[in-house]
């Protein structure tokens, strides 16, 4: 409006009457012009409502869509949940995970033999994590699974008192690699009694754990040994090599420890002391 008045003063020198007439005419013109502000406000409100409504229905659609499906309507490919690795009972230098099918003893034995033949530094321990497949399911081997894979029949009460998966390991010594395992027991005194009662049959039962080692005829029975105030039992199987059957209950943590050599047992005891 100010622009129109300025232009009027530039082109003419109006009188007071003409100025009033001009002002009235311009006011009337302004009244006839449609107001734009209400239209802008209305369209803004409509836009906000449309956007809010669209967001609401989109959220409802996504919430109603079944999870785990692809955008093509078929099942989405999801990776199997990874098993949480059980914590080791003591420190080891290396680790290897093997997987065997339930009932496939030859396949399991080949994997274990390959692990035994791997070269490692003397005095080191490798943890062997054993997984088993039972159909489509995969899990960590229990104490019962471990014995079943070896075709070993332990006292039922022994496996019933074991808590969680055992820790299988290989000790690499100067005489070769030696197998061992550790498991936590709920009733250590009864587990020790089970092992003592099983001693007459341990040699024949544990023969697969010696792999290609030749076992000489044994006449001497198990004998008592002590290392770092830990009492353990040992059946010596060779005069030339560190080879035998050793077992004990480590009191701190109630661990059953079984190894196939004297040096492996003493090293496992050292590691369990370090892990306390």
Description of the structure:
There is one protein chain. This protein is α+β, with helices and mostly antiparallel strands and 276 residues long. The chain has two domains: 2-61, no CATH class; 94-275, no CATH class. It is 41% helix and 25% strand. It is built from eight helices and nine strands. Strands 1, 2, 3, 4, 5, 6, 7, 8 and 9 form a nine-stranded mixed beta sheet that branches. The protein is globular and about 45 Å long.
Defining key terms:
276 residues; 25% strand; 9-stranded mixed β-sheet; 9 strands; single chain; alpha+beta; 41% helix; 8 helices
Q: What structural class do helix, strand and pairing data support?
A: alpha+beta
Biggest sheet character: 9 strands, mixed
Extract low-pLDDT stretches: 1-6, 8-35, 61-80
Count of individual domains: 2
Approximate strand percentage: 25-35%
Principal-axis shape = globular
Mean pLDDT: 80
Q: Give the helix tally.
A: 8
Helix content: 40-55%
Q: Please report the distance between the alpha carbons of the first and last residues.
A: 92 Å
Question: In short, what is this structure?
Answer:
With 276 residues, the chain is of the alpha+beta class.
Show the helix and strand layout.
Blueprint: H1 2-11, H2 16-32, H3 37-64, E1 94-101, H4 105-117, E2 124-134, E3 137-140, H5 143-150, H6 156-160, E4 162-173, E5 176-185, H7 188-205, E6 223-227, E7 230-236, E8 244-250, E9 255-259, H8 262-275
Parallel strand pairs: 1-2
Antiparallel strand pairs: 2-3, 2-4, 4-5, 5-9, 6-7, 7-8, 8-9
């Amino acid at each position: 409006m100010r622009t129109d008045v300025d232009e009027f003063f530039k082109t003419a020198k109006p009188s007071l009457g003409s100025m009033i007439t001009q002002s009235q005419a311009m006011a009337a013109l302004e009244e006839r012009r449609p107001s734009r502000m209400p239209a802008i406000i209305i369209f803004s409100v409509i836009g906000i409502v449309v956007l809010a409504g669209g967001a609401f229905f989109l959220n409802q659609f996504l919430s109603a869509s079944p999870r785990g499906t692809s955008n093509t309507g078929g099942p989405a490919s999801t990776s199997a949940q990874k098993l949480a690795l059980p914590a080791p009972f003591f420190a080891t230098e290396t680790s290897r995970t093997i997987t065997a099918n339930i009932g496939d003893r030859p396949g399991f034995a080949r994997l274990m033999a390959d692990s035994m033949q791997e070269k490692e530094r003397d005095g080191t321990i490798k943890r062997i994590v054993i997984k088993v497949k039972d159909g489509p399911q995969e899990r960590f081997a229990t104490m019962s699974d471990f014995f079943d894979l070896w075709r070993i029949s332990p006292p039922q009460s022994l496996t019933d008192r074991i808590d969680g998966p055992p820790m299988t390991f290989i000790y690499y010594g100067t005489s070769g690699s030696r197998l061992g395992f550790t498991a936590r027991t709920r009733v250590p005194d009864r587990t020790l009694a089970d092992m003592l009662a099983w001693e007459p049959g341990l040699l024949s039962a544990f023969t697969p754990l010696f792999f290609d080692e030749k076992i000489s005829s044994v006449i001497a029975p198990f004998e008592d040994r002590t290392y770092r105030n830990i009492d353990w039992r040992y059946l010596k199987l060779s005069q030339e090599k560190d080879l035998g059957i050793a077992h004990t209950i480590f009191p701190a943590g109630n661990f059953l420890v079984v190894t196939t050599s004297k040096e492996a047992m003493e090293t496992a005891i050292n590691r369990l002391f370090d892990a306390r």
